[in-house]
Amino acid sequence: MAAVGRLAGGTLKRPRWRTGLLLALPAIAIFALLFVAPLFTLVANSFRTQAGAFTFSNYARFLGDPFYRDVLWNTLKVAALTTIGCLLVGYPFALYMRGRSARARNWLALLLLSPLLISMVIRAYGWLVVLGPNGPIAAVLTWLGLTPPQLLYNDTAVLIGMVHVMLAYMVLPLMGSLDRIDPTLVPAAKGLGAPGWTCFWRITLPLSAPGMLAGAMIVFSLTASSFVTPAILGGPKVKLMPYFVYTQATTTLDWPYAAAIGFVLVVVTTGLLLGYSRLLRRGRGEVVFG
Amino acid sequence: MSVAEAPPETAVRRGRLRLDGVRKALGGREVVSAVDLETEPGEFLTLLGPSGCGKTTTLNMIAGHLSADGGVIEVDGRDITAVPPHRRSMGMVFQSYALFPHMTIADNVAFGLRMRKVPAARRRKQVAEVLEMVGLDGMAGRHPRQLSGGQQQRAALARALVIQPDLLLLDEPFSNLDAQLRVRLREEVVALQRRIGTTTILVTHDQEEALAVSDRIAVMADGVIHQLDRPREIYLRPATDFVAQFIGEVNALDGTAAGPAREGHACEVAGATVAAMPPGEPPATGAAVRVYVRPEVVRLAADGEGLRGTVRETRFLGSRIRCVVATKAGKVTVALPFDARVPEVGEEVTCAWRPSDASLAAR
Amino acid sequence: MTRVLGGAFACLVGLFLVAPVAVTVASSLTATAYVTFPPQGITLRWYAEVFAKPEFLSSFVLSAGVAVAAAGVSAVVGLACGLAIHRYRFPGRGALEAVLSSAFAVPTIVLGIGLLQWFAQMGLASSPFTLLLAHLVLTVPYAVRLVLAGLAGLDRSAEKAAAGLGASPFLVFWHVTLPAVRGALIGSAFFAFITSFDDLTVALFVVTTDLQTLPVRIFNYMQYDYDPTVTAIGTLMVLFAVVAAVVIERFVGVARLFGADQDHK
């Protein structure tokens, strides 16, 4: 019934679409010139030799070289492990949050989001101290009479740092999903004779799957493409694609090759997200991105 | 001069709305086609119709939120068709109330006065008066979401009235309230409207509401006004099949026009002669017509002139007794007063009514 | 029992979340010439070191300036674009929406290298302005999304009501539309500031040796020096973030900032 139409009576006689276009123009300009154009340049460059001739060799090199295949594989592995880590820490945390009062939940959410308010470089540096040879973990282990292992510049260090950054991205969609579960379902199942664990396993867990899936997708793709934390905590020893995009572009100065690695990274991460949104459209679900 | 104290005769002189051939197409569909309408100053007029009949679109054109594709809208002889909404003087109450969520009730009500650059002292006084008038005196400092639905509705009304508008436009203002509150608030609104005498246009799909509050009702369907008349006429003497079927329950009897009767117009229905009073031009003799009779106006007699039939069913409904009589023209539903004699099932009866209580239209 | 376990677990997660920051702050006070935790001795020497290094100050000024500009521009561009998408149909609207949502999916590092190559191709030299442009790509999509969420919560009848009460189109915008997206605008400005101020990935590709944002400066410094100066800067930045968060909480509320609550309050 609501008659949605054009609001009449404006003294302006400009067509409506032109007003819209005018308002959107700054955003269009920014994204055409600073997003679409650079990405096109990147794709174009990835098919060039350093001299500028057309070639597939950059991709052939990336996919043909066992070293770089290893880089790709390790990127996926670290992203997957981070996702699993976030699930293992985040799911119980979300369950804990769900049972608290609104006030407590606000504080817990703030705690969860607090790492995002602090500079990424500083955060990673903090882990450098925590995990470093003069840090608290080493101190405790030494005090116990143990030799502290090398905690830095390996996959574990990157994993710890990434779970720390990504936890909020897992817990928030998960909370959204858990909150949408009808609170009478579990008592209903209990009334039908299901013990607590079965209730969790058969009701809460499957119904929170959309949130888990959404969180997992976000965490996976953000981890696969993150640069700062792995660069600081892993260094050159941890072979991840973003790091090689960076070194190829700034140290080796092989721009076409850097472009090719970057483009493979885009395919890996956006391919995942696209597949996921496809999946969502088929089976009804709700996502909270970011 | 405050709204509350406005002497009726000065208030009543304003607010003559005229629509002449107003049209509007939305999304390629003609939603309102050539609507003509004229109100008396101080009148309470209702646009009644089902969803999508064009009543809200019409109201939005009166308010200026939609521009008419054709036709003329006049208030007190002034053509406002091309006037933007903020230069018209319409107090509108929306279905959602549309209170500004970030402002207090007092600021909401004061908004229109502020736009009119009314000095602060007078503004405060008028706001206080109008809030008292709608019974919200203690609520001035609250925010809309701290108010109940009924209070929000009153605040919206206060905001619309404080500007002393040419017209008060009400867009389904009671539909978000529960049944009891709805009736109470609409009584209040009618009483208030009678007191201040602002011409009021109500849009609703609720026929009972329309009958209860209106001086006149315009029944709309598919973008045209089917009938514009007083509630009693609309109810008893519907001009079209749509009006008859949309409002209440009706017995529709097919027959042939048989020329003028002693009272009203005679009509042959399944061998019997009945009479009804057509609201418009009487149909030509011999034309196929349909007679509309409300259950409440039918009286049962043992014999006499009218439709003969057999009682099939009786049911006590509290305020009424409902009977179904099978006649040659089909089933006739009759609503008898609760203390009437209840006929036996199987009894032979005659259904009769005063011709002026029934209607007749070509089919 | 489960409650106690849950509480203990939540405490552990809390510890995990605050550990790097807490350790950074504590070890900034160490008297040793290397970073250690627990700190040994207490000194403010490293804070003095920070202020003794003018390059850190100039980097801070650059970062803060670009971040403030990014915050303002994002809010304005985001508002205009959000209004356009929400209210109007115009050629390219679908494409714009697609680009805005895909901007979330493109890795920042790829954007960085893309901008590097594109700017080089265009012959655009590094400047605070190019840095701002690069950051807008990161911040505007958030701003648009927040504005759209704010507009979705606005009852269009409220605008009609204001017009009917005599407000001209500009006054309707000023008194009704703008307050409805006020939270979204503050939120997007805040996000934009944080994103820009914090960004290392894109900045690494856009900056030069003479023009280093604070994260780039710290990142480069860390490669060569392991003295507690960085922990002192870190502490200062944490303080900065805390103050910003408190201010924002005062004015908008953190929950609303992250879109957690749309309506109640």
From TrEMBL, chain A:
PROSITE patterns: ABC_TM1. Its main location: membrane. It is found in: Cell membrane. CDD domains: TM_PBP2. Keywords: Cell membrane, Membrane, Transmembrane, Transmembrane helix, Transport. The keyword Transport applies. One of its GO terms (biological process) is transmembrane transport. It is a multi-pass membrane protein. Belongs to the binding-protein-dependent transport system permease family. CysTW subfamily. This is ABC transporter permease. It comes from Nonomuraea phyllanthi.
UniProtKB/TrEMBL annotation, chain B:
GO terms for molecular function: ABC-type quaternary ammonium compound transporting activity; ATP binding; ATP hydrolysis activity. Gene3D superfamilies: 2.40.50.100, P-loop containing nucleotide triphosphate hydrolases. Its EC number is 7.6.2.9. Residues 17-247 form the ABC transporter domain. SMART domains: AAA. SUPFAM superfamilies: MOP-like (SSF50331), P-loop containing nucleoside triphosphate hydrolases (SSF52540). Keywords: ATP-binding, Nucleotide-binding, Transport. This is ABC-type quaternary amine transporter. It comes from Nonomuraea phyllanthi.
TrEMBL record, chain C:
Keywords: Cell inner membrane, Cell membrane, Membrane, Transmembrane, Transmembrane helix, Transport. It is a multi-pass membrane protein. Its main location: membrane. The chain crosses the membrane at residues 57-86, 98-120, 132-154, 228-248. One of its GO terms (cellular component) is plasma membrane. SUPFAM superfamilies: MetI-like. GO terms for biological process: transmembrane transport. It is found in: Cell inner membrane; Cell membrane. Belongs to the binding-protein-dependent transport system permease family. PANTHER family: INNER MEMBRANE ABC TRANSPORTER PERMEASE PROTEIN YDCV. This is ABC transporter permease subunit.
